[in-house]
Amino acid sequence: MSKKEKAGKVILILLGVAFIFVMLVLPLITVLIYALREGWRVFTAAVTDRYTVLALQLTLVATVSAVLFNTVFGLFSSWAITKFRFRGKQILTTLIDIPFAISPVIAGLVFILVFGRIGWANDFLQAHNIKIVFATPGIILATIFVTFPFISKELIPLMQSQGSDEEEAAALAGAGAFTIFRKITLPHIKWALLYGIILCTARAMGEFGAVSVVSGHLRGKTNTLPLHVEILFNEFHLTQAFAVSSILVVLAIIILILKNIVEHKGRKEVDEVVR
Amino acid sequence: MYVELKNISKEFGDFPALKNISFSIEKGKLVGLLGPSGSGKTTILRILAGLEQPDSGDIFINGKRVNDIPASRRGIGFVFQNYALFRYMNVFNNIAFGLEIQKKDKAFIKRRVGELIHLIGLEGFEKRYPHQLSGGQKQRVAFARALATNPDVLLLDEPFAAIDAKVRKELRVWLRETINKLKITSIFVTHDQDEAIEVADEIVIINHGVIEQKGSPVAIYQNPATPFAAQFIGHSILLDRYSELKGFDKFEGFEKAVIRPELVRLLKPGQQTHLDAVESGVVENVFFRGNLMEVHVNVKGMKIVAYHSTEDEPLHPGEPVGVLIYRLYLYNRNEVKLVNNSLLDEQTPLYLQGNHNKEKSWIACR
Fold it and tell me: With a cut of 0.85, is the ipTM above it?
């Protein structure tokens, strides 16, 4: 490597590190510093506040529901797209990506338009006493919508590259669909699936826009953690806002660590098994 | 007839993969489906196995129509082109898979898998995973796995395509012998004519979703029924002005001819016998092929390929040489016609050179 190239390398690395530090690390540290600015007692008070705990609960409920739903859907859709030939396959693949392209706010508004007071499903919902908008189901729906593509996005390329030979071989040997999935497909996709689940979880926990629209901001009822942070912030409870934020930061860091472990293990296995 | 396809058609979108195909196979035969890629041969195999449904037509196995019987209950063993071994299972579990699905008892499975591992000569490899095996070993495991449940019919999709040349030769012989020993009706797909000729009892030549010819390798080699068969089998060189060659008159309706190297003899000036039938040519290129020399000769502007024994006096590029052509295959769009050199008297024995297997069988059948 010539001197010039070496200098270029160093500059690029430094730029990268500086950028990541200023844009990502510094804000995170700021959150923690700000949260602890008025001491440990204020911090714990904010974190263990009744509304915070309720918001955390709601966030976890929405996240778990969305992840469960999207895992099942992601598996089904990836299976259908990669193992079968059918008309409109390309359209389906494109449709799955819609949540990546559409602003979450619009997604929230769509749910209001469908299930809200002005929505066309309103009469039916009223008649059966089902509440979706400004209630937990709405928040779950919005979260599902936003995190919809994460798992199938991980699975489809992998399953495509694997082809369906092994599944066909198993089917010829007489294995049923579930046995084939459990013994042939799952061992192959498990790391990608886990990775997708982790990404989906991270996104679901932090979702703000879509949830904000359908939530109605009922404190203790339809407030998720990110919404709760916003409310605290708007009410100038800065320390509390940052304290609650730090819960999300800690959760994010845990997820990041999990993600790295899964990535590492998955890559190791792929290196070993796939040629 | 043990396996029978009747008027099978299949389209993929707008692409007609198979056009009204019918053929049948006797019990215990080893049949090769031979054709270029995209000819529809793999589709035939997959339809037989039940991995694809035909748009129309009937499939019979052992006298029973199997169109509506699912793949798993047709009694078929399938060897995939890339083996499709279960990569997260070791050799033992790969072979045992079908038996476990059938819920056979453990002792039986162990015995049966042991037998098969002995058959494929991989004792001691039971615990290995597919990625720890060579191509040839994977092939054998795939073969054993396909046989584990004692299928009535064995289907092999390009069984040697992914194996290097040297191992391929050995494996061909091994497969031929093993299938003979087991007496299982087998169909394999290949695009390699040498492979088909060497391994199969019977060859079905397929092109553009149509069967061009079906017959024993010898019969197809000697009497190609269609222009495609004539060009696809054997080392074939196309001639467009064959009537300019000595001893071959123009046949109405036959524009072109195919010539094969083993039907040409090269003569050094001076050793010529049938003077009136010998063309004169110039050596253009000489290729060493190990057991013989492949010589490209220019005769009246046409390129003719011939074999020349390494025992004989060597030929060099630029050298004049006598060219004696024994036989041509004339063809047009639909027909093939065999024509002998009219200037050679009937008694002249055909001079055949080279020691490829196909040529040996050619001689043997005369």
Answer: no
